[in-house]
Design goal:
Layout lengths: L1 H11 L1 H4 L5 H10 L11 H12 L20 H6 L7 H26 L14 H32 L4 H20 L2 H17 L2 H38 L5 H15 L2 H16 L3 H21 L5 H55 L2 H8 L18 H32 L4 H31 L1 H4 L5 H32 L1 H4 L3 H33 L3 H21 L3 H28 L1
Amino acid sequence: EGQRRLDNEHQNHRHFTTMRIPFVCLCILQVASGFSTSSSVIRPRERRNVALFAANTPLNENNNYPPIQLSTKTSLASTIASSEESTTVSDNKNNVQRLGRHLRSNARAVVHDLSPQGSVGTGNKVPTYARLMTLASTTVLIWLSEPLLSLVDTTVVGYTQGASSIVQLASLGPATTMMDTLLYMTYFLSLGTTNLLTKGMAERDWRGLQKSTSNILALAGAIGVGVMALVWFASPTLLRMMAGASATPQLLEYAVQYSRVRALAAPFAVMGLVAQSFNLATLNTKRCAWAVVLASAMNICGDLALSRFGVVGVAIATAVASSTASIFLLASVKSKLRGWRQKELDEWEIQQSAKDKLADITRASTSMAASNDIDGSPQPPPPSQIPFFSWPDRKSLWQLATISGPLGFSMTSKMGCYAALSVAATRFGVVPLAVNNIMMRLFYFFAAFGDSMGLAAQEFLPASVYPKPDAKSYRATARRLLAISVTVSLVVGQGSALFLQGAARALARDGAMIELLQRQAPILASVVFLHPLVVLAEGTIIATRDFRNLIATYLGAIGIHGFLMTTAPTFEAVWKAFVVLQLIRLSGFRIWRRRAAQA
């Protein structure tokens, strides 16, 4: 008789086990209004109310909703109703515990399906050509703004300082090189930011995203303070070594003054690089573009307003513009972190609501003892909020090291190979050295267009790799990236050759230099043509964290490139060795890309 009553109670409460989601009604209203689910926006508070209402509203099983297909993850009822009916109290207790585990594992999927993004299928993982081009154009704008602003600085100093302009312009050479090199050496934090955020967003790990961002920002601030201290105390020695025989007391004085003023903004500059990568990773390209416009306007206005102070005024303008742009980007980071925090709380509330619903079902179908085992403890508090800056623990620090270490090694290796070109060119006289300087400036300019392809691969490919690899969307994204990269390669390769041949007389006045520049045009075009394909392949292996292949490829490239540099008999052979370096990198990375596509 007791078992019969338990069966009757279980039958009366079965309608509670079927979770009907009123979100279907919202979908119908949106479609009727002409809006698609993929473009709709549900505010966090509204989504939380929908979820709580769905978890606590029983409906008659005979009610039929319109035939809108929802993910199987959304229906917690399928997990509960699929459990076999218990015949004893102990069996019921075991079933309830098993259901609790299923509910906890599926709660995150419920949040995903209730969100607008959750209703989009595999196609959402494949970016459109418009999104790819928007990201690429924004990054090109960012990277080209730096040399253009440096040109403005030198122009202002040259036209306003009269007799001392030559010495001040000469001092800007080692001073800007030292500052730019030190700041560029921290760029591994930006690459690590992109890698961690793209993976976390693909996995929808809101708390992990907040923690990673907070930890990297704290590290960036600490490294920026270290750069500031290094420049402030060691700049005289470093600049004297860099200037060499040209290190006159007056030149060193100007160079030290410029470097120390720039160093005061180093913490903001390093955090700004991280914030810039953060906004690019979250596809907030408008914010990045406005930051470039803001920094450029402030830098130019500051140069003109402080022109009577020479290199010191230029340094002040650059430091203020950099700090302002960094604060502008950090404000966007803070706003995004608040949104992730709200999503984390939404998910936590749905989990708690699912637990409460499970407890109601349990009290109706099990003994009081079994119910107390599940609902006897007080409700836990919501997860604590992660501060904007937080120092990473040992585990997080090791995770950052495993990502930033290989990226730092690849950056150092790449810059070392580029520097080896200038070192090798010194063996062939002043004219080849001057030509090498012009060709390297042109390479960096045209390489900015190709570098955007590597960043695009790091931004969009993780969505097809995490949390579960999707070969179809991976191949579709890779094909679009490859199509754009080939187009960019053809344009910049041909453009660099035509520019060097046509503008050689504008770049140099010496007849020997003009002839050598025109003769080197096909080699420069080959290097520039291969560059977008190389960085695309490199961005692919960074996106999927195959750092072993990354390190192995660069180790082989360093060895072969170093041998070719030391044995090059002519200046032309030096740049032909650069072509070989690009081919080595491309071949090693493309081998991995085929393996990744097959996986």
